[in-house]
Amino acid sequence: MKTIKRLYQQVLSDHTASEQQLAQIKEASPELGGVVAQALASVVSIYAIDWDTEEIIASGSGFFLDTDLIITNYHLVEELVEVDVFYVEEEREYVLIATPDQQLRLAEVVFTGNEEEDLVILLTTDYILDPTTGEEVESVQDYPALSLSFDVEVGDRVLAIGNPLGETEGTISEGTITAIREPDEEIEGGEVFTLQTDATISTGNSGGPLLNLSGEVVGVNTWGLEDPLRLNLAIAAEVLDDFLERFEETVADYTEEEDEDEDEDGDTEAENLEEAKEDN
After folding, report:
1. Partners of 47 in the β-ladder
2. Is 160 helix (H, G, I), strand (E, B) or coil?
3. pLDDT digits (tens, 9 = 90+) for 187-202
């Protein structure tokens, strides 16, 4: 309960910090400020929590790619779940997200990628936590989603967006794409297609979107790759798109298997009824 109260106060503080930084950006460039304001409406803070001890295991940012689907870094939840797994409803672990409307909402870890691509899919639930009691309260809410862009070149201006997570500096950072690293390049973190940028990527905006100036996602900020050069890297949108396609295929396969099982159960039940009639 103390953790929930403390987190809620941090959420309010972080929101104020982001609003202050946004005001500064708007003053310097109203057009750029508009892009940032629209993006922030789709960005969340994420907290992986040990629910037995209420200890915060890890924290970072994420963003909506659908009204209830959030993308973030796998390493934020690696102590809760395994790599390359689709979790059915009864197996899912919960994390806490701070939404743009300053609510603490429960979300489920649904699909994980491998350690190299460092991606995970969360689905929001219909429940928020009351900041005063810690109890679950039903509150259905959809959120605006960002879109992907695969059109990126060295020299393009970009924005790394995230949440402060109690840090003194904001986590809205402007920069350019300084390198596009193909998977076969022999660098740490080079097992997947990554974008290198001089926009600052930190623990606060890790898992958040790397945007072009049209507000489209060109990459997923990734802080924490084992990188001796401490480069600012983002997982390219192409990798995320492939990851989403794998998720959709996995869900389709699972649904098909469930339907087949139901048909088999129905056939068995019908056969049993027929046998019972014959016995009578």
Report:
1. 59, 96
2. strand
3. 444 468 999 999 988 8
Interatomic CA distance for residues 79 and 73, integer angstroms: 12
Among this protein's residues, is 206 annotated catalytic? Answer: yes
- Give the count of alpha carbons within 13 A of 148, CB side only: 16
E-strand ranges in 86-213 read 94-98, 104-112, 120-129, 136-138, 157-160, 173-181, 194-197, 209-211
User: Does pLDDT of 226 surpass 60?
Assistant: no
pLDDT tens digits, residue range 33-77?
A: 999 999 999 999 999 999 999 899 999 999 999 999 999 999 999
Query: Are the beta carbons of 118 and 227 closer than 8 angstroms?
Result: no
Please pick, among 206, 242, 253, 265, the residue that the annotation labels catalytic: 206
Q: Which residue has the tokens 């059915």?
A: 88
Q: Which of 14, 61, 118, 202 is catalytic?
A: 118
For residues 148 and 97, give the distance between their C-alpha atoms in angstroms, rounded to a whole number.
22
13 has catalytic annotation: no
Q: Which two tokens stand for residue 188?
A: 């740490």
Q: Is 224 in contact with 75 (CB distance < 8 Å)?
A: yes
Strand bridging mode 209-211 / 217-222: antiparallel
What's at 89, amino acid-wise? E
Per the listing, tokens 């740490």 go with 188
Q: What global pTM score does this model have?
A: 0.88
Taking alpha carbons only, the member of 254, 227, 251, 238 closest to residue 75 is 227
Residue for token digits 């109890």? 135
